[in-house]
Amino acid sequence: MVHDDLRVEWILQRVIAGFDLYDRPECLEELLNRGDGQEEEKMIRYLNLVSEEESPSCLLFFKAIREEEIEVKIPVEKTKDEDVSDPESKTWSRSEAEITSTAEDAEEEEEEEEESCYRTEVQVVYHLELHVAVNSYPERFLKSTVFYFIRNTKETIVEPLDMTEANILMPRLFDIGMHSGHPLLVLQNKLANVYLPMLMMHQMKVTGAGYQSQAASPQQNSVEGADKSPVKSTIRIPIRDELLNRTHKYLGLINTSLQHLQIQDDFTLDIPELELKPEVDVLLSTNAEMIETLEQCVMNWQTQITVFIEEQQNKKPQAPGPMAEIAFWQERASILCALSEQLKEPMVKKIMLEMTKADAAIVQTLEGTVAELNKYRVESDDNLRFLSTLERHFMNLATGSHFGVILETIPPLMDSLQIVWIISRHYNTNERMLPLMERIAWQLCERVSQVVDVSTIFKEKREMAKSMARDAKQVLDQWKTSYFVVRAEIEESGRGARWEFDRKRLFERTDYMASICQDLYNVLQVLVEFYNIFGPELKGVTRDQKRIDEVLHRVDALVLPIEEVRFNPFDMSNKSSWKTIMRDFDSTAQAIEAEAIGGQHY
Fold first, then answer.
1. Phi and psi dihedrals of 129, rounded to 5?
2. pLDDT confidence of 1, banded at 50, 70, 90?
3. What are the pLDDT digits (tens) for 515-565?
4. What is the mean pLDDT of residues 169-186?
5. SS3 124
6. Segment holding 185, helix H or strand E
7. pLDDT confidence of residue 334
8. What is the DSSP secondary structure assignment for residue 460, as one 8-state letter?
9. Quick one: pLDDT at residue 260?
10. Mean per-residue pLDDT for 111-138?
């Protein structure tokens, strides 16, 4: 059934597709007819709304299951009476009144027999229902699947002429989406997997990784300066950086909240609800059953905490970057703190007091496990405190708008690592500091590979591309240089242990990627030199311009093998393949150069 209002029909079609209700049309009919059409009227008011407010207007559809108990008659097998009267022994001489009375009795007996052939059962029937809300999220639907429409216009949504026009116009007026599950999990997934990558890519596109302003020629700057304020363009990059930083922090808060919820669901000490009298000695001497219950309770705590500590020790950070290290210790600190707080509850203390009188050995074993738990909790808090001093630097590495921000960040970051190495009680060993530095090196390599794309770098303006390759190499070189500067300072000061980390793990990949960036810079420099040689000046004085165009075409083709590589040049496993491409480039470039020298009489 097509709705009279094509706007409503268009929305309902999306809801049917989103919830896969093609074979359940009765759900929509029930929704539209519910409450004498109140739900339908709610949708129409939403579409007709004219709003002066900046806040968005949202229409939400929820899919829910409603349970209903109904009585159902179940047929049962009828048991026949074996004692059947002989019809021949019956006397048929009856009065008319007797015959009438007998017929009525037979009907009643037949109805009773029919009723006795069934038994009544209560069964649960499940009904699929749709519900609608505008600008509100009912609590009972927090875990239901929701399909939403967010208006992006303040004006009334005009009814289209037909569905063809509706399919063109309506999608422009709404942001449409769907999600299911816990709201915090939905928000976490969308922030981490959609909005943060989108913000970062948008930032890199708008800023050109910080190179667009450098690539503009003086003439372009003078023209653009008349239309656009230079102050505006200079303040936008820090604003975007701050937005990314705050979004990362907000995601961290969401993760922490989810961790607390997980603790409540997954790990809670089994604390019995007992009424312990203050007279401990009397209790111990008269209530053996109570003592046995408490002993079992304490042993269960011992097992729970031991298993929990083992699980935490086996966990690893979930991502390769340095921010994952902070998230890891945030999670562990939150979980251990929550568990420690459970052990401070009055009932736990009372049970421990009772059991100390009854069986000190059990309590001592538990206290040893609790002491180990507290040791790990203190370690987590200490690590998180020191890592928090590095968080801003880590953010700059991950979200800095251009390589200049990263270059400025690396020296103070290395100085902060030195302080952590000297002061921290846990990040003062190779086992802890080396993996953290490896994560920093990974982040630097990741940023370089995001910005320097061999398939597109030669399509950029040549000076901008050269700056990009040069600065990327400087970032990777700065990482190694700053490390050795701080290492020398530690040795000279005599404070703390020397940095004797595995240099292969710290610098092998960064050095290799720096060499790739140097190769790209050299290629760009060769192109610039060729274009200068075979430029307009040579064309103006030569007789064979066609010959020059042919040479320029060969120069353009020099980079095609690089642009069309089917592997990642920054991956060390492709080292030999990259060297082959570079050798081919050098030999071809030398051939063109020899031809240019030999053909100076063009």
1. -130, 150
2. low
3. 999 999 999 999 998 888 776 666 555 666 677 778 888 888 999 999 999
4. 87
5. strand
6. helix 183-190
7. 84
8. S
9. 74
10. 78
For residues 124 and 69, give the distance between their C-alpha atoms in angstroms, rounded to a whole number: 5
Nearest to 124 by CA among 67, 74, 72, 66: 67
Residue partners of 361: CB distance under 8 A and separation at least 6: none
**What ranges do the domains of the chain cover?**
6-62+129-181, 267-388, 443-598
Q: Which of 342, 328, 180 is nearest to 259 (CA)?
A: 328
Torsion, Cα 308 313 317 320, to 10 degrees, reads -160
What pLDDT does residue 242 have? 74
Q: Which helix (H) or strand (E) holds 177?
A: strand 174-179
The DSSP bridge pattern shows strands 174-179 and 118-134 to be unpaired
Residue 418: partners with Cβ closer than 8 Å, 6 or more residues away? 486, 489, 490, 496
d(CA 515, CA 570): 9
Distance CA 384, CA 382 (A): 5
pLDDT greater than 80 at residue 45 = yes
Token pair listed for 574: 């492709």
**How many residues are given for the chain?**
602
Which residue is it, tokens 């920093």? 440
- For tokens 């940023």, what's the residue? 447
Residue 564 three-state SS: coil
Residue 297 tokens, joined? 């309770």
Q: How far apart are CA 360 and CA 514, in angstroms?
A: 64
pLDDT reported for residue 11: 92
Q: How many CB atoms lie within 10 A of CB 51?
A: 13
DSSP 209: G
CB 478 within 8 A of CB 410: yes
Tokens 């953290």 appear where? 436
Single out the residue of 444, 523, 429, 522 nearest to residue 477, CA to CA. Answer: 444
Tokens representing 258? 């989810």
Query: What is the pLDDT at residue 111?
Result: 59
Question: Helix or strand or coil: residue 94?
Answer: coil
C-alpha span between 70 and 72 (Å, rounded)? 6
Q: Which DSSP string do the residues of 540-560 spell out, in sequence order? A: HH-S-HHHHHHHHHHHHHTTH
Residue whose C-alpha is closest to residue 558's, from 514, 513, 528? 528
d(CA 366, CA 302): 5
Q: pLDDT tens-digit profile of 436-471? A: 999 999 999 999 998 899 989 998 888 999 999 999
Question: Alpha-carbon distance 364 to 368, whole Å?
Answer: 6
What are 179's strand-pairing partners? 146
Q: Which two structure tokens, joined as six digits, stand for 111?
A: 């109805």
Angle ∠(150,153,156) on CA atoms, nearest 5: 105
| Locus of tokens 């890519």 | 201
Q: Which helix (H) or strand (E) holds 5?
A: none
What is the Cα–Cα distance from 559 to 527, expressed in whole angstroms? 9
Q: Which two tokens stand for residue 487?
A: 């290492």
* Residue that has been written with the tokens 């690396």 in this structure: 410
Helix axes 6-19, 38-48, angle to 10 degrees: 110
As a whole number of angstroms, the distance between CA 377 and CA 370 comes to 10
Closest residue by Cα to residue 60 from 171, 148, 174, 151: 148
CA distance 358 to 208: 73
Task: For residue range 400-442, list pLDDT tens digits in order.
Answer: 878 988 999 999 999 999 999 999 999 999 999 999 999 999 9
**281: amino acid identity, one letter:** D
315 SS3 class: coil
Strand-pair partners of 122: 71
